[in-house]
Sequence to fold (868 residues):
Amino acid sequence: MNMNMENSSIWDNFSSSKRNIYSLYIFLFFFILSMFAEILSNDKPLVMSINEEIYFPIIIDYKEKNFGGYFDTEADYKDSFMQELIAKDNNWAIFPINPNSYNTINLDNPSPNPAPPSEYNYLGTDDRGRDVLARLIYGFRLSVIFAFVLTIIGVIIGIFFGAIQGYFAGRTDLFLQRFIEIWSSMPELYLLIIFSSLFEPSISLLIILLSLFGWIGLADYVRAEFLKGRNMDYVIAARTMGLTNYQIIIRHILPNSMISVITFLPFRISGAILILTSLDFLGLGVPPDTPSLGELLSQGKENIEAWWLSLSTFFVLVGTLLLLIFIGEGLRESMDTRSK
Amino acid sequence: MNILEVNELCLTYRNNNLDRKILNNISFNLKKGEILGIVGESGSGKTITGQVISSLIDLKKFHITSGEVKFNNENLLEKSEEYLRTIRGNMISIIFQEPMLSLNPVQTIKKQIIEVLKLHLTNDINEQDKSISDIFKKCGLFDKDKILNSYPHMLSGGQRQRVMIAMAIICKPSILIADEPTTALDVNLQNQILNLLKSLSRESDMSLILISHDLDMIKNYSDEVVILKDGEIVEKNTTTKIFSSPKESYTKTLLNSRPKRIVKENVNDEEILSVKNLDCDFLIKNSFFKKNKKYFKALDNINLSLNSGETLGIVGESGSGKTTLARNILQLLNYSGKITFMNHDLSKLNKEKLRKKRKNFQVVFQDPYSSLSPRLNIFQILSESLAIFDNNSKDELYAICKKLLYEVGLDESMLMRYPHQFSGGQRQRIAIARALSIRPKLIVLDEPTSALDVVVQKSILDLIVSLQEKYNLSYIFISHDIRVINAISHQICVLKDSRIIESGRTTEVLNHPKTDYTRGLIQSNQIS
Fold:
């Protein structure tokens, strides 16, 4: 879309409220930070020097054999063999700020799992000895990316169907509308349960299943916008000028209906995060090893005395949703022409 | 004796801590039984003036900085809300432009009238009944019981406006403010309503303030005229003096802007468009069975023809099928019949061929605010169709668009701006430039000047005529205003209830009208 007067005034409106602008910046800060999760939180050293040679384990996989070990598998830098090697004179290694990955199991933990916060695990461990902080960082990233993907797919399908219904109206609209009614009356949750037992659960399966239903609400909305737009004078003028249907939709109606779609986005993203979390909480979501906020929450429920599990997850989740809702609210207000 | 004196009234509008002057130093007097006309363009402050007098303005938004409004020698601006409520509706009444919006759609007329009566006059049912019968008779509402038990949507536009008037004058106010009372009505109805207001004023010695943008209407009905521009009084005088010897140059411009015949006669008889036996039905009740389907005949056996370089004026009231006819000619709706354009039968072309033919006939709409896409700039709007039909480079497109803007009296610095930065008249010029961009042979103008003020209207009409002479364009000009049609068209069609009731050369039809309807149209507009 063009960065025209209207758009820049939307930005002015949005940034005139401190709450909006701080929410956006804080969210972007954490989101971009989480993109570098492998550097922030990992059990491999960023750089290390063994016997005068420089290694970058975070980028390149080294076999344990390379360092004089026995196994032809990837080196475990937390293993006593590697630790001793690093501790030798002249050898050194720089570990990330949080020296644990989401699947690193702390085997040397003095207290039983889930273990409270310590110098090895800043936010403690979960019931399998995995680092909570690392799982939060990776889980946050996964949730947000998952939500983005789900939203984008939903928006594309929703706009596609909504545009066709609204623009062509009449019989096309009638048939698609009936189809949507039938489609949306399928029980989504049962389908999820059935499919998660039929297939091996994975992120992509989840995205496909949720996308099948996620576009319906948006399609209704886009349809209404297009029904309104197709009778505007400038659209009729475009038709008399001989523009094709595709050109009219893309150039004339779509840009004028985008505002409502954009307003919806932050709410859809927060909704998608919530869906993923609840499915994980119920055990219907991502595969067990994957770092997920929902799984941490359900562990927190199982181990009610391990406050570091439930509280930390709770704050991450509430913070994310709150920021997204603030952003969405700000967007909605700044695009609402009636309030001016 | 002055019943109302407005002295040096100043009013500002407050928005986001920005004060904007709306009214500046407004002073005028209103005598008992007199009819005062307030004329001005939209935005000149005429409606606000009426609302200040009837104490209807929102004091949170509007701030009266100085001046006084004296009603019977009492300054209304200093009075309490309770006192004003006894004045409002009782001593000073107001009727608005849109009768459908001013009546509550979910209550019967009876309930709404009795509400007014209870508030200001009496609780006695017999007395209420008597005053309702009186007032209905005066307002020309004869079928009293039926109207009283109707809901607003069951009445016609004229009846609704009469009911509004009846409600406004049932308490026998001293002043009635009529804010564009007839703009939403058809010409013949307009006259009836205005005559009614005038006779009511004369009979009961009621003062009337008539607010309008229509100079002719003011000329015919008011004793005194106040001309407003940008919140200031340009000139005030008796009606005869204003119209015979205007002093200020703005008044003169306003008077000269009334549409006069500006087209030259044309001797070309090469036919460019012919419409034969055109019918158009709208489905109003759908059903699975064919016999249960119900249709509304929007156009009934329309025949017309247009010569190249000529203008065909189509005049008719709202709902007569003018716009449907335009859309049929533009091939935007399904119809039966034959439309031949430049020797091609358009109804026989397939979609793709039709799309290629479309460059020859273009359209300009009434509402300059909805006819330009708000998200495209002027260059994009103008170059859009050029890019489809010709393969021009970007530089060539710029040159063409600049030329187009000059052609319609705008300049090239506007090329990169967006529609909302322009005034209504400028937008209409842009819409005309867009229609011109692919050099069509025929342009359908659907009420192109109805949303504009008289001065702007005149400049647009001049532009349309000069473009016609320059490019030998043919126009179909649709309007409800026979004065505009008279100004611009060579031929005329009078459309009523989906049928053409009269057609021919403009001068002929207007000088020797055959039907009563046309005669009424001409008389009520006093075309000279």
